[in-house]
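Notes, Module 5: Reading structure tokens.

Key idea: the token line is not a picture. It is a compressed description, and you learn to read it the same way you learned to read a sequence, by spotting repeated patterns. We will look at two proteins. The first is printed below with its tokens.
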Amino acid sequence: MALAIGLVIGGGGVGAVWALNGDDGGAGSAVDARAACGALDRFHESDYEAGERPTSEIALNRWSAAFALSESAAARDAAYKPLADALRSSKGRYVADAEFSAKVKEDLAQARRICSHI
């Protein structure tokens, strides 16, 4: 349930980020992509799975922030679409599986590999 709430909040965050960024010729996209990677770097599945507040809440917020920022970056610059796709897939698979399955972890690993080149 908390993840579903986080997805809704994250979706709202995407809209807010788009509205605040304006048309910046793509420079904001790189900033958003790096910020997404920073949030992902600080996200650890084990913290979310611990189920202890505030640890799990912080983890959920970091994952949601990474997702929202990657979507914002990809909306302006297609070069960041693979990052957004990997994070979107990780969220969708988590909702479907209700756990950090091997597929969810692979999506997160893919997003982290992409981040290593940003």
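Here is the second protein, with the sequence above and the tokens below, as before.
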Amino acid sequence: MGVDAQALPPVQRHQFTTTDPDHALAFIRQNYADYSVRFPDGPAGFIFAHSMTSSHSFSVGRAHYGMVVKARSEPLEKLFIVQLLSGFLQFSVGQETVCATRAQPVLLSPSRVIHAEWDDYEIGMVMLDPAMVADHAAGAVGIHPASLDFTGMEPVSPLMAQHWRSVVHHTARDVLPNPEAMASPLIVGQTQRLLASSLLTTFPNTALTALTDSPTGLVEPAAVRRAVAFIDAHPGEDIGIAEIARAARVGPRGLQHAFRRYRDTTPMEYLRQVRLHHAHRELLAGDPTQGDTVSAITARWGFPHAGRFSKTYRDTYGRSPHQTLHQ
């Protein structure tokens, strides 16, 4: 499920605003699904505003639909997660009806007709490629990708709803606006895995059930050594827990447990430590007069947030990345 550096498409950013209901309807049909609306109070005062930033497997954006509307949508092609920011918004899918709130995101799955009602809403939204999420579930839990099914629209708990909001906020604030980060296959791959993992732990689904029910078991230390060797040999590649576990010849759950027991860490945290070491070496060898910058080096090694990287770097090496580069 890695991101190919050669095939990484550019980030797409677009905005669309209209006061014409027909133009808004055409835009929604073109970008989402076949869609029909009713205006109980008439279309006077209509406004529709939409902004979106998209990578190859995920998109994050906002929308404002300014009036009372009842709508019916044909099945979406993407996993669509909605966070209400203001106004009123309610979804009905089959026998389930959910009213979105500022505290509770709502998941709309593909292949299901959606009925919705709203009044002057503003929302944050995330769209994910279902195949990417299914592949991530298969690597993380071991289920077959085709068996992944989301069984509910509401988060499993308020704590996980808060976690989802924080992940989306981090993606929208720290990753998507950063051109160097979005040009890095490591960061794009990390971000898509973070979103997929957060989705799988936030909303009820068959992978979450498998994760809860699966036995942990113990793994021989040899598997940890194989995983460490693989990480040490491939730190600059877009690898995640699925690829590391495959190289270690164990399941992801067993590998996670073995790392905690024998190394008091996780495979992904060890990978971050290795990448931090490589970033440190590049900073030491860098030459600012030749165009080397802290942001370019840190993005190359998978660190999209300059402030967090600086704190981690200072805690580890006792000085700032800037001081190291300009020594």
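Summary for the second protein:
- Confidence is low (pLDDT under 50) at residues 213-217.
- The two ends are 39 Å apart (CA to CA).
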